[in-house]
Amino acid sequence: MKKRILYGEANYPAIVRENGYFVDKTAYIQKLETVKNAVFLRPRRFGKSLLCTMLESYYSVLYKENFEEFFGHTWIGKNPTPLHNAFLVLHLDFSTIETGDLEVMEKSFDHTVNLALQSLVNRNTCFLDDKPLLNLENSSVSNLKSVINKIQDNKLPLLYVIIDEYDNFANQLITAHKDHLYKQLMADDGFLKTFFKLLKEGRKTGAIHNVFITGVLPVTMDELASGFNIATFITLEPDFENMIGFTQSEVDLLLDDIYRDYDINPDTRNEVQDVIKNQYNGYHFINPEGEAVYNSTILQYFLSWFTKYSTMPKHLTDMNLKTDILWIKRITGSNPDLTEGFVTQLTTQNSIDYDDTLLTQKFNMSQFFEKGFFPISFFYLGMLTRKNDFALTLPNLNMRRIFVEYFNELYRIDVSTGYGDMMQYFVKTLDLKPLFAGYWQEYVSQLPEAVFSQVNENFYRTTFYELCSRYLSRWFTWNVERSYPKGRTDLEFVGKFNECFAGIRMVIEFKYFSNAAFKKFNISIENFTMISEDTEQIAGYVEGLKKEYPEAKVSQHVIYCFGNGGFKVFDI
């Protein structure tokens, strides 16, 4: 039976039993054993929940007989640690906790933890056979204490506690600006801190062997510090940078397997690799000069379609990624002026400065909505990544599209009406000049005057790409800043290998002159002629492209944008 891409599957045993593709990250299990009370933060949809179920499968006494089935094919299966299948595992998921008033939250929290404790007792009757041990009417702290006491009194296997999405319900309070509820939640005598104090006590007595916690933002853990000041933050430790997310070598091996298993034409490989690298790669959580990682879940969205149909999906952005716009609104929405400045900066510059000391330390809710913390918040949410030691950047085309969409929304730019005819004409003729003219007439004409003081070639390139991707994704993919031996192209239209424009590549170089700079030419736009260095520059890129894709039908174009005064397109 062929292996399958099990998109969205976070249950490790299910992936093994349903013959799913699995990128082996089990070597990190051994590394994690050197860390006590680990807290590991990564963006949503990056594979944290799968990591948690993998740890549960490895450490739970329940799966002792399944060790070979679950891990025999993995690195850790060939190099097992003495602690495998040695613990009672309490696996908690805080993403299901309701966020009403404090009473609703406490009731939901107790219900969530108590159900997990009840499952632990029911599934481990050989150790925890005293059924009256739990009372679901009691608080979760009371019931957890009963389990801890039972373990201590009877010298049972120790408890290993896994908490997935520890900050989920607290983050909802923060982004909804429910400050009063958040403060109540974080009170020293509140149910949440009391729960973490008990975990600390369990670690102290030895009844709890270890605690592993995942989340997205460090805000809540900072507030909980007085109750759980034994946490080890491994989020920004180099040893764990690639614990989730896929490296390029891991993706290469995965594609090797997929192309072999599904007998896909190997001639499509380079094009597919270009697309997924542009769309889903680019995350640098620690070292900006190190190897970037892919968002593994969003990559699987692409590969799930690819393995079913041997073609690329029409739309390369997973619809689940659209929810990131809601996060942008929640974080920046309290200050419209700051929001416009922040989003415009990223749309025009694709870069924003940040304070590294803020990134590497815990921070509290009072800082969360401050302007200086916008870049930090978006780094942890996975919308920005390290560009260098001083600036953050949008990691890939997926995120660029999302920020342009929000830019359009902020400035009320219509991208849904008035574009059909020009797009249809382009599909018939592949004539770039009327396509860009339509973009200038329909899109650029809507921009407010204030924006033109900030626009540049990156702005025109990115917004033009985003608009075209809305209408032309059936036939084309796009490269932005694709590297060749003699430099990076600004924008490429790439005909999809399974569509009528297969093999076609349109290489576009953007050049920008402000209104003031253009005046110095002392010439009209109509009489402006192409600058020879620009011709040489794009020719150098195309030389490298043709070496990689000798069969490609390549056209070359230079687009000059003159402030808000106009443009000129040259076909070389």
From TrEMBL:
It comes from the Bacteria. InterPro entries: AAA-ATPase-like_dom (IPR018631), PDDEXK_9 (IPR012547). Residues 7-224 form the AAA-ATPase-like domain. It holds the Pfam family PDDEXK_9. This is AAA family ATPase. It comes from Desulfobotulus mexicanus.
